Amino acid sequence: MHHFQRIDGALHAEDVSLDTIAAGAGTPVYVYSTATLTRHYRLLREALDAHRESLGDARIAFAVKANSNLSVLATLARLGCGADTVSEGEIRRALAAGIPADRIIFSGVGKSDAELAFAIETGVRQINVESGAELDRLIAVAAGKSAAPEIALRVNPDIGAGGHARITTGGAADKFGVPIGEAFDLYARAVASPHVTPVGLACHIGSQILDLAPMEAAFRTLREATLELRTRGFEVLRLDLGGGLGVPYHGQAETPSIAAYAAMCARVLDGLGVEAAFEPGRLLAANAGVLVSRVIQVNQRGDGRRFLVLDAGMNDLMRPALYDAFHDLVPVRERAGEPALHDPVGPICESTDVFARDRLLPPLQAGDLVAFMSAGAYGAVLSSEYNSRPLVPEVLVDGDRWAVVRKRPSYEEMWAREPRAAWLKG
Ligand code: LLP
């Protein structure tokens, strides 16, 4: 459920009409709902709290990669949410937004020495180590600081899942994590070092997962690995179950409920006495955001094809071009007339700049506003300035208040980032 609804014919974000925001901030523009972010966080929090016996004091660490806007992060920070980060930049963002270091998890397959050093200095809660090579570098970096950061070992359970082959991470051929067969020796190596403190295991098998079965299988692998490690005399205090739960992009309720997900996790972890951690990105943010765009024109072809040319391009919303992703497209104001099939496209000079084919839409005209739904996760974060289009701005709504929380840069600001080479001046 989200808080984008039609009031008096106009699509609103909470109590603010998207017309008003488009008029004030221009288009294209991302619009986020505080109430939806809050609702999703609370639903997950309550679902996990209902299983304290099995999941312990379960941590929720928002996957910052899904939406790293500082005001979005600050909204979640106030609710008590932590952060799952994959770069120094994301750690800095989380801190800047008010998420304390002891609620920050540092994940990622290729953390540099400098980033590892930064994470140690910052005092993040946990570093998720993804390979033997990384463990060795982390030990060396930590030794230089006489530190012993807490780490979890990310295992690759050889179970991939997800809404698209390009967002699957848990398969044997995927670059992520340590094969389960190698995890035991690696954990032992970590325990033997005075410069890391192994506290548990982690996994994340993919994104936009709509079937709990592969997740359950992966978590069972973690459970068995936990028992095996304990048999070998090692402590396992935490299990980080990653993110990955899918959301209903198509409007219908095809997704597992948060309650069913939490119950499944509790069932698998029951009796282990571990503290669980979760790294949801899409689940919290996707349906909390829309991308509002204006129709530039409708190109009607003689063969009947109708291209709805929008001012948003694939540089603003990459998901359809990258993953064939479906985003519902909704007119901000209802228009009377016979609906017809349209191909919504952007203005970019690439044939991948097609958001969808054959969408049934009312007869839209130049100047009309449309909203791409469920664009709050992996939307703005994936945007670029391709074709020298300024980065799309972001707006946060809270009830009847709204604020621009990322500005559209001016052309001067864009050029200012590119100092002219000395020999080209004058
Ligand atoms: N934890 C780790 C280690 C991850 O790699 C990811 C996402 C998450 C948590 C959060 O997953 P979520 O709950 O959002 O599914 N750009 C793609 C999605 C890439 C996901 C990458 N990893 C998309 O737009 O579909």
UniProtKB/TrEMBL annotation:
Cofactor field: pyridoxal 5'-phosphate
Functional pathway: Amino-acid biosynthesis; L-lysine biosynthesis via DAP pathway; L-lysine from DL-2,6-diaminopimelate: step 1/1
Record domain Orn/DAP/Arg decarboxylase 2 N-terminal: where: 44-286
SUPFAM superfamilies xrefs: Alanine racemase C-terminal domain-like, PLP-binding barrel
Enzyme Commission designation: 4.1.1.20
GO molecular function term, any single one: diaminopimelate decarboxylase activity
Enzymatic reactions: meso-2,6-diaminopimelate + H(+) = L-lysine + CO2
A biological-process GO annotation: lysine biosynthetic process via diaminopimelate
Residues noted as binding pyridoxal 5'-phosphate in the record, renumbered to the chain: G244, E279, P280, G281, R282, Y378
Catalytic residues identified in the record: C349
UniProt xrefs under NCBIfam families: lysA
Job description of the protein: Specifically catalyzes the decarboxylation of meso-diaminopimelate (meso-DAP) to L-lysine.
Protein name from the UniProt record: Diaminopimelate decarboxylase
Gene giving rise to this polypeptide: lysA
